[in-house]
Please model this.
Amino acid sequence: MNGRSSSTKRNGGSSRVKSRPLRIAIMGAAAVGKTCIVNRFMNDTFNEKHKATVEDFHQKQYKISKNNVQLMEIVDTTGSYQFPAMMRVSMTISHAFILVFSLDDSKSFEEVDRLRQEILEERGDKPTYIVVVANKSDVPEREREVCPITAEIVATVDWECDDFILTSAKDDINITTLFSEITKEHYLRENAQCTDSPATVAPGERRKSVPLTFINYTSSNLRKSKANTSCTIS
Ligand SMILES: Nc1nc2c(ncn2[C@@H]2O[C@H](COP(=O)(O)OP(=O)(O)O)[C@@H](O)[C@H]2O)c(=O)[nH]1
Ligand SMILES: [Mg+2]
Model:
């Protein structure tokens, strides 16, 4: 996610829109909850029914600091192998990738590894930010097929992904946190060389340093912590 915005424009009031949108692709096996995660983030809604997605685009503006607004473009991809060309395009144009698996589906965790490898091959040397998401954290422990603690170690240590987060689209756990973390990282990378950046801080402190307020988004049940990481699988 390197490169800098080449220009800015005014957005209604006094906020400036950065010209280069942050493109996020959400990927993973079918029925892991990709669309529900996006819908929870965009509209604060949840649908109990699964309807196969081909490819959906969403846009959202968010405030990254007092005077700066950035455009976020989210591609909600298909979980099937039917559209490889579309998947490759999403991999090429996106800056950040949310790879979702479901805690009650161990095969979906394997699919994350496959996708991760494909993304890295497709992108070559281009900067690539990958977050692994363990969704459906609300399902009872006895129904889990993947231990979240083990999954986090595999994802962040073995696979060297940038982040791991436990979510529930159903209960609205960590959905806003997921997108705000990606946004903060993007903002910091884009402004790494910028002397007038408000985010010039020591690396260890950087996650706390960027004020971030989503426009038009209110969640009555926002939980910031990485919820319930207990694991009984031996
Ligand atoms: N229990 C639970 N079910 C979820 C969650 N997220 C999605 N689902 C359900 O999983 C199914 C598939 O969701 P969907 O978002 O369509 O999956 P996608 O194919 O990955 O886009 C639907 O029946 C959703 O209601 C969650 O966090 N918890
Ligand atoms: Mg879908």
Notes: The CA atoms of residues 102 and 135 lie 5 Å apart. The longest helix spans residues 106-123. The chain has a mean pLDDT of 78. DSSP finds six helices and eight strands in the chain.
